[in-house]
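SEVERITY: medium
COMPONENT: batch folding queue
REPORTER: lab tech (J.R.)

DESCRIPTION
The queue accepted two submissions in a row. Attaching both inputs and their returned structure tokens so the on-call engineer can compare them side by side.

ATTACHMENT 1
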Amino acid sequence: MPKTFKSEGVIFRCLKYSETSLIMDIYTQEYGLGSYIVSGVRKAKSSTLNVYRPMNIIDLVAYMPGESLARVKEATHAVHYDQLDRDVIRASIGTFFVDLLKNSIKEKERNDALYAYMRETLVALDSATQLANLPILFCLQLSVHLGFQVMDNYNAEYRFFDLQVGQYIQTAESSKYALNDMLSEALHNLMQDPQAKLDKLSRRLLLDAMMNYYKYHIEGFTDLRSLPVLRSILS
């Protein structure tokens, strides 16, 4: 008999498969990122379909992951959101976050610190009161867990943030990857104070800069499908 395991996990993506099944990308606390299939949940009388949605934090029982899709035996909500799955702005930010995770994580092994970060982030998003800066902050904080942390060495001499090297440099002319002085200072202010006030243009340009930062540091990083929706919601 194939062995099963129990774990908490965050659902990154769900795809319809056959008439009643779903294929999912789930990051479990026990085994990291994996692909799973669950059968029968799209039947008309299914009482568990709402469990299997992107951003959900679930408790699952599944067969051990291998080379093929692992089968989910059962799952329930580990966390019940109050606003995240109902509020348009929160849902758009959460969708961006799991999209960023799905496109950034290359290692499929267990990572307790990364799992704790994504769980805490989604729970915090559900109750957060200040939302506008969160997408940029997610990018900054996730980079720490992925091994290419943004360095805040900003001062009067080092005023231009270089997207390729991940830190501030002395002159913008020395690198084609450097942000201008206005955006560089705005990024520094945000790292010093997560509630720093940014105008909409600066916020949009900084988020675009963070997407380029990820492209420079993750091979094969692709444009996020959730980004145009997020831009529209926050504009």
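ATTACHMENT 2
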Amino acid sequence: MNVKVLIEGFPETYKRELARRVALNRQILTFQYWFLPVDDTGHEDFVPVGRGVPSSEICGRWRSLVACKNKEGHKGKLLKGADVTNKMVVRHKHWWCHKASCPICFARGWSPREARNILGRCKEAEKRGLGIVEHVTVSVAVKDRDLRESVSRKNCREALFDRGVGGGAMIFHGYRIDWKRKCLVWSPHYHALGVVSLEGGFDRCRDCVHDCRDCGLCDGFKVREVRGFAKDGYLVKVHETRKTVFGTAYYQLNHATIRVGLKRFHVVTWFGSMSYRMFEGEKLVSEDVCSVCGGEMVRCFHAGKRRIVKDVGDIGYVACFVDDEFDERGEPNYVEIVGSRGFG
């Protein structure tokens, strides 16, 4: 990606601000949502996560490595385009402040922690027989885009109920990318990880072999989606089967939207059959979850020859990568530190 070409024509004040954030965390250059300017006219109190200031001097300081050796769970899967078959997944551990606004910590501190919380509740929901967790989006009707966020959230929650989503987690996104203007524009919507409570769940529509003209005789999700949109203008869509709950939650969280000026703003809220008053989420054994297989990662030290960059502000830094478990002599490249599960 040629960032210089992409930001050509941006105001000088924004270029300076971008340079400041890049010096703190070059990772933001890997995802256009993280560095494009925001057209926030009329919505200045909302900003994408990661656009504030660091909370302390230790934000992003390197701690250790964690690795997942679950080769069976890695078969046929990719990590950022790299084949993980018969490979290990390795990730850096750093000190994070766990604040959504921090430009250093938002994507590797706050997002994974919230994603783990979502994963724990979703696991417990499936154990309780509530159904398979689906990835759903609900977009605020055009006529309602300037309503207060609390009202929009309520309306979107009602739209989810109406279409058959019985409960889940809602993640607020206030902006979408305008590719022609090369900026983020106001377009409020929510990504939900929830359960379709209709008979047969969403698989009833996903696996349907009937002609679309037969939908009138059915009360499945797709029929309710069309009827609901005609009634209220809220577009609700179930996406393709997700690979992992954690991966989906993490991705949606790391480009969510927060409201400034409030002591506490809830980016994630739970509703319906998966709300906090219904049950407690499963407590995960480890805070380190593999983004490929969802398995536990363990703390280790690097014993191989590969050069590993540890500074998040370095041009060669890679937060998560694939590597061989053994070198050409059959010696382990990564040695587990015994008794370290769940610690950094």
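NOTES FROM REPORTER
Confidence is low (pLDDT under 50) at residues 340-344.
No errors were logged for either attachment.
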